[in-house]
């Protein structure tokens, strides 16, 4: 597209944009007024009913698991038993307030954003989409939110509690605390919370006008000059909306700073406990304000660093600093002046990665990694179904009862292991999720969940590279993951695994167990469970229509009813994955 050049061109671009934006804003506001209350009521009533309805069971089961678990020591159990009623009693109140605010925000902003998205590039019949988008889809999305919250309360919570009461291994020790450290930690927390809350809130309030003005300046410059986030035509309609909503973002940042300051204060008490030092806790209390000040300076492109003191709050860091100073003194007295000068000059050379290079990297979005996994499960699920490693009983159990380790844990674990094996054989630096897409630290989504996943997967890839798996062993692994326990090398004695090396078997079994643990944590994400159930239903119906299995009449009727209502087909199948990855980045995935 052509970017306006010169003052008159930019002025005309801005003036011609205003009527277009105002009409879209009015239409989106009308839809928000009409659809918003309905969506907000669904989210508020649905989430509140689920959380409050399950609250007695959660209250009792939480206490039972805490008292039963072997992973928590006696002193910590007593302390948790005393303090636990407060958060459990506040849970219904937090649920009601959160559901109300979340429902209002969802009901207002989703129709508004859908109206602006309807005029983007690649949308046919924009006029009809401007009026229709954000109406029925907002209601359906509100129901999906309630379903995800229900999945979390029914599935994820009890899955966490089941892990808590599992028996510990022989090499594990229970988590406990020392009573002698508690008074010091409690005193530090009592001092640090009010200090950090006041100081961090003051810093946030002091810099909020700067954030407001700098944000408006940058958005207006990008809008008029068609640069930055508004360079593409699809982003232009959002320009005015972003400018109008920017004060809300500033207010949200100040509120988030206020609540995060409590965490800084309580963390000071934790530092005092970990370091067994009153001074270290006070040092963190002061350092937390400096850390926040430095972060806001970086965010707003102000001066580097912070004008506030930042004392060290770890004894190990202090000892390292003292050791470094001693080394410098020693070198200063023993080395000649010219050599010392050259050494210091060399030591100051620090290689920084090119900022321009980092900006050119197209970082993958979390939804693309998610889509890859589900499409891989679909493709491999068909193969395993044809080989008899997945049966109709497995799918029916998962569809009706919502649980089944073979499908929800073992199938995704095999898909990830297959990707790791292929990456190891190709000597890739990262993970090959397609022929032309390699996932590395540079393009991996900057998301907490995905950051937690990538490190272990890269370590496992290096382990698989050392094991040098051949094709026969790879084919055998598929059956072993789906059918065997994989707890000790002797479990593979009669499995037909080509290698008799018990060390290699033990290493592979440890890798399989680790992958299954990663997938078990992933399955607790509500959207994972919803999409995986839809995926299994789609595979089940496809197998019945192809004559591969004879399904139960009741389950078949239930799945067909879901198809008729539109619950299946919206997500979880390969066609949907290709559609969601509209950029084409993952459109050529082949995991088979």
From TrEMBL:
<feature type="transmembrane region" description="Helical">
    <location>
        <begin position="186"/>
        <end position="208"/>
    </location>
</feature>
<protein>
    <recommendedName>
        <fullName>Steroid nuclear receptor ligand-binding</fullName>
    </recommendedName>
</protein>
<keyword id="KW-0812">Transmembrane</keyword>
<feature type="transmembrane region" description="Helical">
    <location>
        <begin position="40"/>
        <end position="66"/>
    </location>
</feature>
<keyword id="KW-1133">Transmembrane helix</keyword>
<feature type="region of interest" description="Disordered">
    <location>
        <begin position="325"/>
        <end position="345"/>
    </location>
</feature>
<feature type="transmembrane region" description="Helical">
    <location>
        <begin position="78"/>
        <end position="109"/>
    </location>
</feature>
<feature type="transmembrane region" description="Helical">
    <location>
        <begin position="12"/>
        <end position="34"/>
    </location>
</feature>
<keyword id="KW-0472">Membrane</keyword>
<feature type="compositionally biased region" description="Polar residues">
    <location>
        <begin position="325"/>
        <end position="334"/>
    </location>
</feature>
<dbReference type="InterPro" id="IPR040229">
    <property type="entry name" value="At3g27390-like"/>
</dbReference>
<feature type="transmembrane region" description="Helical">
    <location>
        <begin position="229"/>
        <end position="248"/>
    </location>
</feature>
<feature type="region of interest" description="Disordered">
    <location>
        <begin position="572"/>
        <end position="592"/>
    </location>
</feature>
